[in-house]
Amino acid sequence: MRHLLTGFEFSSDEYLQVLELAKDMKENPAKYSTNLAGKTVVTLFEKPSLRTRVTFEAGMYRLGGHSIYLDQKNGEFGHRESVKDYACNMSRWVNGIVARVFLHSTLQELVKYGTVPVVNALCDLYHPCQAFADFQTIREHYSDLSKVKLAYLGDGNNVTNSLLIAGAKLGTDVTCVCPKGSGPDVQVYEAACEVAKHTGAKLKVTDSVEDINGFDVAYTDTWVSMGDDTPLDKVKARFMPYQINQQLLDKTGIRHVLHCQPAHREYEITSEVMDGPSSLIYDEGENRMHAHMAVLSTLLNQE
């Protein structure tokens, strides 16, 4: 039984296979129209969602399967009913569980007690499906990922962690440029660095924008993660030096820009860049669907 909780579960070759499958699904959708015929996934969401929910549901439909959405109007998983009972019951009815949760431990419980594949659609530590879509998008412009230099700017979070893992697996250099004290998870970074030793990827965490001169792709995310009620204006002074704007692109020579969305325009990224020729952001959003389809097909068609 295979799951996708962190991204570490996939070898470098398997990571590339998923990206190649996503590419083919995008180019030849009819070829996969019955790939998951007769199969059902449940999507459990503790957090609000636009792209994640729509792309998983649309992806299942395009593969000939069915998706059932459950939100958490009754509170977090484990309050009204234990996570164990959720997992045991769902495993009797569906072929897979896609879960967007507050805590990574919730996903681990779903795996522990369930008997179907579990897909992490976002948690406090990881966002692996987003990273698949990100690197699918990068690969559409850079055929050799081992020659790409990717810069992440802003608050180190679950997206940052997953970019480090994916970069390590694929041999892509990833530098995280964050204010001191706001970098990615240390344990995730160290684990990714161990993987990078075998693929040649160079991973780095710094607070200096000067370290990304000559990079290819810049990536950013909101300065305040979902569930944090801190007003953006309260952190603006701390993070504004890491804003992606045209001046940064001109200075560094960076050609392409990514953002996992939702974006706060004029905070972590300017509208000039988001709507400009360097932006791959809406391609990236579209590729969420194709990446999710590839992940679901890989996990739900295990022999």
TrEMBL record:
Lineage, highest ranks first: Bacteria, Pseudomonadati, Pseudomonadota, Gammaproteobacteria, Aeromonadales
Keyword Cell division recorded: no
Native source organism of the sequence: Ruminobacter amylophilus
UniProt key word Cell wall biogenesis/degradation: no
Residue stretches making up the Aspartate/ornithine carbamoyltransferase carbamoyl-P binding domain: 2-140
Matching Pfam families: OTCace, OTCace_N
Family note: Belongs to the aspartate/ornithine carbamoyltransferase superfamily. OTCase family.
Protein name per Swiss-Prot or TrEMBL: Ornithine carbamoyltransferase
UniProt keyword list: Transferase
Domain called Aspartate/ornithine carbamoyltransferase Asp/Orn-binding: residue spans: 147-298
